[in-house]
Amino acid sequence: MKRLWPFLILNVAVSAATVLIVLAIWSSAHPCVSSARVNAVAPGIVATQAPTATLPPQEESLFEIQAVIGAGDIQNEHIQIQYLGSEPLSLQGWQITDGKKHTYTFDNFVIYKKGAFDLYTRSGYDTTIELYMGFTQALWQDAQTITLLDSSGVTRLSYSLTR
Predict the structure, then answer these.
(1) Distance CA 42, CA 76 (A)
(2) H helices of 3-70, where?
(3) Residue 20, SS3?
(4) Sign of the C-alpha dihedral, residues 26, 28, 31, 32?
């Protein structure tokens, strides 16, 4: 047994060093993001235009819900939203609701051509492609409708959940 102690200690030291190296690499590749909201820009797109001050016509299809992931599971539940417009658009004051008492109001958030983002039900730190509603329970269940309202309260998207 006395012969094994040096090997056990060496194993613990090598394992600890490996974990620290992996964490350092991960941290450098995924820096912390403050809770401030930032602009959502598709990879490779340079944001050169200011967001439009006026809302596009109501007939223009601006957004598409690509999927609702993890419905019913608060840790994974989120909506994948794609922007279809051609001009940068400020979503400040826009709302997304489940038709009941649950409503999320977008803060200072700008989306650009070909932009997309994930809207998580739970709490978290907003990034350029992930926003968090801050709810403690899952929202998106069967037989519900997700509604996106512009800053004037006009419905811009309605999406029915079905499994």
Answers:
(1) 22
(2) 4-29
(3) helix
(4) positive
pLDDT on residue 50: 58
Q: What pLDDT is attached to residue 36?
A: 39
Dist CA 70 CA 33 (whole Å): 24
Total length of the chain: 163
| The pair of three-digit structure tokens given for residue 102, joined into one six-digit string | 């649950």
Side by side, the strands of the sheet bearing 145-149 are 103-105, 95-97, 145-149, 155-160
Average pLDDT over residues 7-13: 87
Residue 32 is predicted with a pLDDT of: 57
Q: What is the pLDDT of residue 122?
A: 93
Q: Please give the structure tokens belonging to residue 138.
A: 């899952």
What single-letter DSSP state applies at residue 156?
E
CA 55, chain centre distance (Å): 23
Q: What is the pLDDT of residues 17-55, one digit of tens each?
A: 998 898 888 777 776 544 334 444 444 444 455 565 567
Determine the Cα–Cα distance for residues 144 and 99; give it in Å rounded to an integer.
Answer: 8
Identify any residues that bridge with 107 across adjacent strands, giving them in sequence order.
none
Q: Which long-range contacts (CB under 8 A, 24 or more apart) does 15-19 make?
A: none
C-alpha–C-alpha distance, residues 14 and 82, integer Å: 45
